[in-house]
Amino acid sequence: MLNWIKNNKQGIIRGMFLVPIILVMVISISHVVSWYDLANPMSWAIYLSVAIEIAAMSSIAAASVKIKGGVWLVFIIVSLVQFIGNIFFSFKEIDVLSQGFKDWVQLTSPVFESLGSDVSDVISQRRWLALLEGGLLPIISLASLHFFIKYGGIDDKQPIVEVKVPEKIELTYQVPEDLKPTEEVVEPPIQTDVQKALDINARKKFEGTDKWGQ
Question: What is the pTM (predicted TM-score) of this model?
Answer without folding.
Answer: 0.59
